[in-house]
Amino acid sequence: MRASLIQLDIDPAESPEDRRTRTAALVRGLHDSDLVLLPELWPLGGFAYDAWSAGAETLDGPTAEAMSAAAADAGVWLHAGSIVERDPDGPIFNTSLLFSPSGELVHTYRKIHRFGFDSGEAVAMGAGTEIVTAATPFGTLGLATCYDLRFPELFRALLDAGTEILTIPAAWPARRVEHWTLLARARAVEEQAYVLACNNTGTHGGVPQGGHSLVVDPWGKVLAEAGEAEEILTVDLDPGLVAKSRADFPVLRDRLMGIPAPVERG
Q1: If pLDDT is split at 50, 70 and 90, which confidence band does 266 have?
Q2: Domain segments of the chain as ranges
Q3: Domain CN hydrolase: where (predicted)?
Q4: Bigger pLDDT: 256 or 213?
């Protein structure tokens, strides 16, 4: 199967409407791919906190409409990164959108781990509560977003739910980009799964983005890595490698569940 990651330059001078139009054209140009992945919060910017409330959208809003049409025109599975979702009955969420090649919105994932500690996403957005996987003709996708990458418990849960390909859109800052590449490789080795990690570039909310989107195989080998500018990575993957790596090096069968608490010794 062929996967393409679109590492977008998020320029505050470009309107969300113009960025949607430009991004849809990029997706349509990838009709030879099976799966296309976009970054996190690309319509507004992952650190553009002041724009989130006014720019929030419903799941049938302008970004979903544009990405649905682009997926159908290209005939690809499209992980359209994430949007600021306005829930009519609740808070805003950081929500990923997955479209089928017919343009149907088949899965959404609300980001569970919100970044910012006592500011930004952590206080402005609600937290997701459900892990999400998606069956496709080329394997089961596991959906995670940016800061989720730091929490291996989520990825173990995705593994146990059958995940073979981890899809991780992000707005990861340049100042911690080494953590980004290290953790992407760690999750691939840990779960013996492909990792498709798609980051932003540019600067928004005053925070330079790290770029360096990457594709990692189940052995932790980096198959492709972008630089710091806007770029499209296209990589051919062997879906059978996941099962083969798990069979050749069956580390997952040695997991010990329910490890008891330490015993105090006087």
Answers
A1: low
A2: 2-249
A3: 1-239
A4: 213
